[in-house]
Queue: 2 jobs
Job 1
Amino acid sequence: MTTPVRYKFTIAYRGTHYHGWQKQAVPASYEGEILPDHDGIPTVQEIVARALMHVLGHPINLVGSSRTDSGVHAKGQLAHVDTDQTQIPVEGLRQAVNARLPADILVRTVEPVPMTFSAVRSTASKRYQYAIWNALDRSPFLGELTWHRRQPLDVKAMREAARLLVGTHDFASFAKPGHGRESTVRTILDCSVSSRGPMLVIGVEGKGFLWNMVRIIVGTLVEVGAGRHPPAAVSTMLAARDRRAAGPTAPPQGLFLQWIKTREAGAVPVPLNA
Amino acid sequence: MTTPVRYKFTIAYRGTHYHGWQKQAVPASYEGEILPDHDGIPTVQEIVARALMHVLGHPINLVGSSRTDSGVHAKGQLAHVDTDQTQIPVEGLRQAVNARLPADILVRTVEPVPMTFSAVRSTASKRYQYAIWNALDRSPFLGELTWHRRQPLDVKAMREAARLLVGTHDFASFAKPGHGRESTVRTILDCSVSSRGPMLVIGVEGKGFLWNMVRIIVGTLVEVGAGRHPPAAVSTMLAARDRRAAGPTAPPQGLFLQWIKTREAGAVPVPLNA
């Protein structure tokens, strides 16, 4: 009998045509909201799992780290899978899976990890990026990868507000109600705002995130950048512990899961221009 | 009676979902090739003309400068249109048309021009860009805007070959047969190759181009970059005056019509990152 081996995968995808990474479980506190119908649109996990099963020749369970929402992209999603197929060289496995994947999904890396590694439990921190196209005119090329904001945004004010989010806080105001988690206390390790030409990028790094947390942070920072709130208002919003206190939820198409750091295997950073 | 006014438009579009700028006229020498069925996919010209008619309130004839092929993009297509509606401020007209256009088409500029101006006849020169994603792995984000070439390309060799194309030559080897033009002599003003990370961009500027000429130039330069021909082979290819002498035709999705210079109105340059 062969001893099974566990592989860690880092996966990039353009989320535009997928129903997120994985079908969402219904949280206990979902409170009557109607679940979206998937309309036959597949999840990224389903597509990658099908390619992997074909290459490995047996059923598998592909466990992902982040359940990215419908339309959200990833540069470095993390997943693990177990197999008895230990004879395939990892680069051969990676290329065979990529050959079976559509053009908008890519397995970046495959590496063997100890069976104690888990894409869910070994996650130490992760970073998201949110891309805003800040110009009077929309971009005809990047519309599905950015959020178009016409009003000029004050990057300095946004940076000041972003600094107030760093640290350990109760982020109840920055979470979609019905998130199904007991505590709404989270730690933000970094929150940065950079801009080059019409492109404005917000980076948020944390140990863990609540449902829609990054998109609500972005929606709030954009309100600050547009002058509708002073930067200091963010502290008042945090203190309120009420979703209605913070800004709107930014749309999914500007959001990228940039990388996930794990306790065992170190960071999986992916360059910005990838 | 109002005197009609002529407007010059510069238009950007992502060509992915369109059947090119305009339905192609069948050249006299099409020689039995079967015309592609449009399958109900609209052209960019049809979509922009419909939006313009709605805003102006009368039938119009939108005349474009370059008949970009299916799947080819534009940062600065040029067009003109006549109207009796002279009371609409140009910026108001521009924004009203943009509000009626899909997210992947944008009117960048509108300006009144003399009735002697013609998007076709006033063209002095134009520049195309071709984007190549040169890396082992495809880009899950830019697949519809680049041509993926896995083999590392020698930029220096490509530049050397590019230089040999500059000037006035018979480009019969670099044109799709059946182009329906009498002379295959054209003047290339500039042919440059630049690279940053995995992105390689070929720029080609000329007074006029034959059918598929830029895509055949790109296909040929890529063969030189891959070491299949020495740079000097380009001169032999030109001298052959035979399509079979040059390299393959690069696919449409990496091609952008960057700008068009006109005799009357000067250049319409659009920044690379737009």
Job 2
Amino acid sequence: MAIRLSTTGLVADNGDFTHSLLNFLDCVLRGVGQVMLQGNSYAGLLFLVGIFCNSPLFGLGALLGTGASTATAMMLGTDRGQVRAGLFGFNGGLVAIALLYFLEPDALTWGCVIFAAACSTIMMAGIASLMGNWKLPALTAPFVLTSLCFFLATARFGRIESTDLLPTAGLPKAVTVEGVVTASTVVDGLFNGIAQVFFQGNVITGILFVAGLLISSRAACIAALAGSLTGLLVAWGMGAAEPAIRAGAFGYNSVLVAIALGGQFFVPGRASAAYAVFATIATALVFAAVSASLEPLGLPALTLPFVLVTWLFLLASPAFACLQRKTT
Amino acid sequence: MAIRLSTTGLVADNGDFTHSLLNFLDCVLRGVGQVMLQGNSYAGLLFLVGIFCNSPLFGLGALLGTGASTATAMMLGTDRGQVRAGLFGFNGGLVAIALLYFLEPDALTWGCVIFAAACSTIMMAGIASLMGNWKLPALTAPFVLTSLCFFLATARFGRIESTDLLPTAGLPKAVTVEGVVTASTVVDGLFNGIAQVFFQGNVITGILFVAGLLISSRAACIAALAGSLTGLLVAWGMGAAEPAIRAGAFGYNSVLVAIALGGQFFVPGRASAAYAVFATIATALVFAAVSASLEPLGLPALTLPFVLVTWLFLLASPAFACLQRKTT
Amino acid sequence: MAIRLSTTGLVADNGDFTHSLLNFLDCVLRGVGQVMLQGNSYAGLLFLVGIFCNSPLFGLGALLGTGASTATAMMLGTDRGQVRAGLFGFNGGLVAIALLYFLEPDALTWGCVIFAAACSTIMMAGIASLMGNWKLPALTAPFVLTSLCFFLATARFGRIESTDLLPTAGLPKAVTVEGVVTASTVVDGLFNGIAQVFFQGNVITGILFVAGLLISSRAACIAALAGSLTGLLVAWGMGAAEPAIRAGAFGYNSVLVAIALGGQFFVPGRASAAYAVFATIATALVFAAVSASLEPLGLPALTLPFVLVTWLFLLASPAFACLQRKTT
């Protein structure tokens, strides 16, 4: 079977739906790519390989979740172009990974994964409509809200058991300057920070994600590395715990902010680069704040800091004459 | 005295204000009806009878609260049509019931009830203006926010004493599959779920509410029963505690969502019915999530899940070609 | 050096930037004035004197913070008129005071103060754009959100130490009617309530603030006194603790609401005065509610109640025929 290749996807968008399965697979891979704001199925494929390297369970979950949310969008008659670009898939994929990370994977949990992925599609349409008022994208807000809602709900239901493996579980409650940050902390933290975008604490996975970004956009790849490093350095400078720095906990939100603000939304230049660096530094602090405020409810920060910081810096940008937003 | 009858109200809206007391009473009864989205004073009357059956205190409170918020709206010069439809009454009525439920009913509390009902009118105008941007109705958000604000405030004030009777008090903190769900659980839970829309845990009250809905709209009546049943079944399937299921705790938000999305806002059809069922199921989970997140502050979920789910599904709907919103 | 005098500022806005340092100082003083909604550098100067009277540390902080956020706005190319009016300064000044109040003032903290003040400028532009949709001003929301974010973040970082001196620390958790309210409580509370707008618990400071307001606007001065008194009386009537009443804890948000709604935004008249009084009473309750809800996270209410109440009453106002908003 010959796979037809387009520049950014497995299948050329030639308007017909003869190869509907391949088309669907292409949507799903682009959906996985969109987690890092890359509507590119090759990047998505490499991200998926990276996840499978760390854990086949999460890899399967990501495929199932992205598929379920994409299929829901198709059934509801959502705009075909947006579905093709993977915009109705990435939140479902992330929801699936988060639920499988947090809950014991029995039959009811797999049912919840599919239902939650479908919910993320409604959430995507709702938040896009809400924020569209200010020309803001939904980003991963549908994933964050859907996941937090399910995590909270399980506390009321006796048939769902949690794994006690929340992403922030490694962060101690009262922090003293703890452990010594060495070169190995920095290298591990750099790649773990990128891997944690999909909640994978694995250096190899991080390297595969970097490769995926390189295929899709060199600028995004550099931004991701710079973002992860900035988050790590801010956390180190402020005296965060070494294990959290090594695990990439302070990096993944900065990675996403760096990709989004450093090239995706603004015309490149000195001012927009400085703006993005400022945002990346702030993200490390916002991550600390969001995770501290959600911890009493037993909830992880997920990518909420990325969403909040990116929305804020996009909202503010029209007031600043030195910045120019890309026309899309 | 002959009461003139219009099709949906005690008094025909003939533009004059000669029978101003009767007119006011009509506004109040429609206000009570609007709690279930029925601008119908006969439905409101039956709802009121149902509340009095369970507790004369709450019945009086509902009348006083609906009256106080309606009167405030009139004094501030609010649009007469909206006041006539009861849209500035229902939040005040609910606020009054909630405050009387939660606080010891002494003179200061009755003063708070009137002040809170008046606040709910400001809140109604504010939230309607806020959400009007997306053509979303305020629903019971003014009631929820006003009540939660008063519950929180009482913690600071020595002269107000709480009754320790929060609606969610029956839900245990750590849930194990508890108690056996029998046919009597299902029947009690079905009608309690409808009665809990006004925070009345009473099967007879629930049956009177069903009768009220039947007078106003057969579709709303069916939706309410289906919504209560769905919420109950989801809670049962997920392993919620039997006493909470019997009390209708997982039902009342689903009842309201079912009435709103199953006929009120969308052109009826297969797609909109499926959309409403999906929303009703999600509501049971959102109720669990909202109540778990508010519990640490000692706050009940009230009808916040209904507001959030209905807003989300209305916001999302324009993205889905298979749904058509009613033009109003 | 002769200081040229304009009616409301140290330097006439003659369009050139020859006296740029004086111009900058003028922006900073107006920024300090804007904390009480007065774009008047003489008022700002008196407010600053009042702060220095209570604490030179906070005085320096206010100058530095206002300067840093104003400078950030200039560097980013923000609209010159808004910067001149002090609109990009007041949040930075408040952020600086709040951080110095809460954190031990070592080198890292001073670095955080400057970074946080710069963040408040982005936040100002973002919130102004967000709320501009409803023609609502940002008020002190940028200050509140930036400060709360930094307070939360410090919990994760070992190098920052808190002073355990949060503004609400004086409020006991479970309140009984405590202490006897005397004439001295009322007098102290009245002026402390005005001083607390800048988080200064000092009667002399409060009197200097009143003098500053008198220079700028007699109406604002009367509103501030009336607001402080109303907040105090509501708290007393509801049975709040005497030390909190004396400290002005229930006053400062009511002061700001009274200035904003009693003259700033509405055409003066009987209806708008009643509306403002209603809002001022509600503010004391909202302060109690907000501080109760933030306390579990170890966070103070700051001026969040002022922001929420003012937004709500402005949002609601178009629905009420008896109120007329000023055209600006």
